[in-house]
Design a protein that fits this description.
By secondary structure, the protein is an alpha/beta fold. It has helices spanning 41-53, 204-227, 229-260, 328-335, 339-362, 366-385; strands at residues 68-71, 74-75, 79-80, 85-86, 89-92, 95-96, 100-101, 106-107, 111-118, 122-123, 128-129, 133-139, 143-144, 149-150, 154-160, 164-165, 170-171, 175-178, 180-182, 184-187, 193-195, 261-263, 268-270, 277-278, 283-284, 290-296, 300-301, 311-316, 318-319, 324-325. Strands 1, 2, 5, 6, 9, 12, 15, 18, 26 and 28 form a ten-stranded parallel sheet that branches. The protein has a seven-stranded parallel sheet with strand order 3-7-10-13-16-24-27, with no helix packed on it. Strands 4-8-11-14-17-25 form a six-stranded parallel sheet, with no helix packed on it. Helix 2 packs antiparallel against helix 3 and helix 5 (339-362) packs antiparallel against helix 6 (366-385). The protein binds zinc ion (ZN).
């Protein structure tokens, strides 16, 4: 049996040694997406699970079949997916326990990474996203989108704990960066407390049961109707009374529960970024469709990122060491204690402060804009002292 003839385009050292599939020159993983020999997503998933069972995460150049979906899967070995390609790819509720590398991959349609947890580094550098993309979940370590190209609508939602690198990325269309809120409910009756969301479900079985129950009642009512009008009215009133009694009982019960479980006002802001963020030379082609909502940018390098015209909602730019709102680039330049570096940075800092001040004024955030004006003037004054 001959082996797959796939060779990675740049990393020529990589050669696939898996068996060829279905009289093709490739294995099932490297068979091109549009090939008629491409296997069904479910079969593809089964074969991937076999690889996972064997701790084989060498998935360089894999071509995912169209409409590939991963739900609640735990990836417990490092996954190397460089140079891979996919059309309509979805990861929902998955856990990546080890590093996952997608660099240099092409996603030709929609990609969704939702409610997933990434316990180690994630690398999407040099990737091309042709369709809409969603990256939501908990990124506990470093995440790299360096030189990524985002052609359609992009959303970054959730909690990004580690450093994030967007340097030199291009966003051609709308992009949203959005943090969240942690709500907690505390039970007053004891030491028990719970945090999370409460979901009300309607069980379809109950629905069926209640329908047949009312059908039965309806049948009875019709019979009674035929029997005597007076008796029907009597029955109707009795039924209405019974319904009222039960609804009052239910209301009392819910009131009792809500008295014991009440919000303790511990709704906490959970900003998107918790670590450093590199926005150096990011290109937002549609600033009018670029939104930062509930985002901490006080550890973000923003020099070179043209943020003119973007929208800010609840953005934190507070710099404790400067005792005002400002650019992390300035804090970093001061902290390095390298006078040469600071000298080189000052004109860029001045321009950075000016650009962002204009954006803040457009967003009608005059308090932050005033601090940025101070930053701009400080940078100009310092240049004269060199
Ligand atoms: Zn192969």
């Amino acid at each position: 049996m001959s082996t797959c003839s796939y060779k990675s385009p740049k990393d020529t050292k990589f050669k696939c040694d898996r068996e060829r599939d279905n009289s093709s020159i490739y294995c099932c993983f490297h068979e091109p997406i549009d090939s008629p020999k491409k296997i069904h997503p479910e079969t593809f998933l089964e074969r991937l699970e076999t690889l996972l069972d064997n701790n084989d995460g060498n998935w360089v150049g894999f071509n995912f079949p169209q409409n590939m979906s991963f739900g609640n899967i735990i990836f417990n070995s490092p996954i190397d997916l460089r140079f891979s390609s996919a059309k309509e790819l979805k990861f929902d509720g998955c856990t990546f326990e080890k590093k996952v590398t997608f660099s240099n991959s092409i996603f030709s349609e929609e990609v969704t990474f939702s409610s997933s947890t990434y316990e180690e580094d994630v690398d999407f550098s040099f990737c091309i996203f042709e369709g809409n993309v969603v990256f939501s979940g908990s990124f506990l370590k470093e995440i790299n989108f360096q030189k990524g190209e985002f052609k359609k609508i992009s959303s970054f939602i959730g909690t990004y704990k580690g450093p994030v690198n967007f340097s030199n990325a291009i966003f051609y269309d709308a992009v949203t960066f959005r943090g969240g809120w942690n709500h907690s409910l505390t039970a007053k009756c004891g030491a028990m407390s719970m945090t999370g969301s409460v979901t009300l479900c309607i069980n379809s079985q109950n629905k069926e049961r209640s329908t047949s129950f009312f059908e039965k009642i309806g049948g009875q009512i019709n019979k009674l109707k035929e029997f005597t009008k007076g008796k029907y009215t009597f029955f109707k009133n009795k039924l209405a009374k019974e319904i009222k009694h039960r609804s009052d009982k239910f209301k009392k019960f819910t009131r009792r529960v809500w008295k014991r479980v009440t919000p303790d006002n511990s709704t906490k802001r959970n900003p998107l970024f918790h670590g450093t963020v590199n926005f150096t030379d990011v290109d937002f082609r549609r600033p009018d469709r670029t939104k930062f909502i509930n985002v901490d940018l006080n550890k973000a390098t923003l020099i070179g990122a043209d943020l003119k015209g973007v929208h800010f909602y609840d953005v934190n730019l507070w710099q404790p060491s400067l005792r005002r709102q400002g650019l992390y680039d300035e804090v970093y330049a001061i902290e390095t204690q390298d006078r040469g570096y600071l000298k080189r940075m000052l004109p860029r800092l001045e321009a950075g402060y000016r650009n962002l001040r204009i954006t803040l004024e457009e967003n009608k955030d005059y308090a932050t804009a005033t601090d940025f004006y101070i930053g701009e003037m400080e940078s100009r004054r310092r240049q004269k002292s060199f």
